[in-house]
Design brief:
The structure is a single chain. Strands 2-1-3-4-5 form a five-stranded mixed beta sheet. The longest helix is centred in the N-terminal third of the chain and has 17 residues. The chain is 40% helix and 20% strand. It has five helices and five strands, in the order αββααβαββα.
């Protein structure tokens, strides 16, 4: 079996973000991976669903729960193109997800105050920042530049 790395899975999350971009949604994409296999995908669908909670992370988590028939994801890794917001951090906390990898920081809406004292995730969750950061940030900049 081929072993994929963080870059490969972030590329898959970016494909989801492009789907959102093309649908005129804020271009955030996510995939959930277990044992080197993508089990769930999601991209922002706030406009389509007229639901402010329809973020890529939330939709990917829900899909992963349904796929596994489980309410926790301790063996899973979430790849998301942009730093999770406070709402998504809460959902990720309750998922007990094992690992979170994100691309670009979000100065406006991301959960910026991640410290050991202010850890928004489950205590066993590992966090990796900045994977394909430039590509993820460029997609966001392109989207918002077109809006102005």
């Amino acid at each position: 079996m081929i072993e994929f790395d963080d870059i490969y899975f972030m590329q898959q999350a970016l494909k989801e973000a492009v789907i959102a971009y093309e649908a005129d949604e804020v271009p955030v994409g996510a995939v959930v991976v277990i044992n080197n296999k993508i089990i769930a995908r999601g991209h922002n669908q706030v406009e389509l669903l007229t639901d402010s909670t329809a973020h890529a992370e939330i939709l990917a988590l829900t899909s992963a729960y349904n796929y596994l028939g489980a309410k926790y994801l301790p063996e899973a890794c979430l790849y998301v193109t942009v730093e999770p917001c406070l709402m998504c951090c809460g959902a990720l906390y309750w998922s007990k997800i094992g690992r979170i990898v994100y691309g670009a920081s979000d100065e406006k809406n991301g959960f910026k105050h991640i410290t050991k004292e202010n850890w928004p995730f489950h205590p066993k969750t590992e966090l990796v920042k900045g994977v394909m950061q430039d590509e993820c940030a460029q997609l966001m900049r392109s989207f918002f530049k077109a809006k102005r």
